[in-house]
Design goal:
mainly beta, two-stranded antiparallel ribbon, single chain
Length: about 90
């Protein structure tokens, strides 16, 4: 299944997905089981954000409404053929 799906069907096992929330817009995120919330990350690294009195290593994304899988990574042949066209 592809395209936007209701957030209640999203994986909550740490899988990186694309989410949409009114607070953050469209971004990549994963569900943090420990803190029971969706957090944004960049290339698997949590973004550091100052919240209140202390630094925490997550970027709060609000309450997501929708999600979808990340696209597959391109294979090397595709990348090489694109660079040859330039």
């Amino acid at each position: 299944m592809s395209g936007w799906q209701p957030i209640n069907t999203a994986p909550k096992d740490g899988t990186e997905v694309i989410i949409y929330s009114e607070y953050a817009g469209v971004c990549t995120a994963h569900y943090d089981i420990r803190d029971e919330m969706w957090v944004s990350s960049w290339c698997g690294m949590d973004v550091i954000r100052y919240i209140g009195c202390c630094d925490i290593e997550v970027e709060y994304v609000g309450v997501p409404l929708l999600w979808q899988h990340l696209p597959e990574e391109p294979n090397m042949e595709d990348l090489e053929s694109l660079s040859e066209k330039e």
